[in-house]
Design brief:
With 128 residues, the chain is mostly beta strands. 15% of the residues lie in helices and 41% in strands. It has a single domain, classed as Gyrase A, domain 2. The protein is built from 2 helices and 10 strands; from the N terminus they run E-E-H-E-E-E-E-H-E-E-E-E.
Length: 128
C-alpha cells in the first residue's frame, strides 16, 4: 500500500493482494519505522457502521475508513477510485483510494508483479 500526502490531500494506492486482503479481512495496513524508534501506521478499514469515507489520526496512526458495502463493491468490480472530501474545520481533506496500476514504462528496481494491469497497456503508451 502506498500513501501519498500533499497538503490536505491523502491518497492510498492498493495492489491486487491488498484489495483481496481488504475484501477477506476488512483491513489492510502498513507501517513506516523511523530512526529513534518512531513509527507511522497507515490503515484502511472497512466499517459497516459508517456511511461515508473518512479519515482519522491518533497515536501515530492514520486510519481511513470506508463503508463496508462500498468497500465490497470496490474490491469485487473494476471500479478504480473512491474519493471523498470530509470537512476539517473551515476546510476539507481530500481522500482518494485507488487500485495501483503497473507503470507502462518499466522502471529499474520496481517489483510491479502485484499491481493491476494498466488500462492503457494495450495502447502502447509510455507513461505511468
Amino acid at each position: 500500500m502506498k500513501l501519498r500526502i500533499k497538503g490536505n490531500a491523502l491518497r492510498l494506492r492498493l495492489t491486487q493482494g491488498e484489495i483481496r486482503a481488504l475484501a477477506d479481512t476488512g483491513q489492510v495496513q502498513e507501517r513506516t519505522e523511523f530512526p529513534g524508534g518512531g513509527q507511522l501506521t497507515y490503515r484502511l478499514r472497512s466499517d459497516d457502521k459508517i456511511s461515508e469515507i473518512s479519515v482519522a489520526y491518533s497515536g501515530n496512526i492514520i486510519e481511513f475508513r470506508v463503508p463496508a458495502a462500498l468497500a465490497q463493491r470496490w474490491c469485487s468490480t473494476d471500479l478504480v477510485t473512491l474519493s471523498a472530501a470530509p470537512p476539517v474545520g473551515a476546510d476539507t481533506v481530500q481522500l482518494v483510494l485507488e487500485k495501483d496500476f503497473a507503470c507502462l514504462a518499466p522502471r529499474a528496481g520496481e517489483d510491479e508483479s502485484d499491481q493491476f494491469s494498466h488500462p492503457r497497456a494495450a495502447q502502447g503508451r509510455r507513461e505511468c
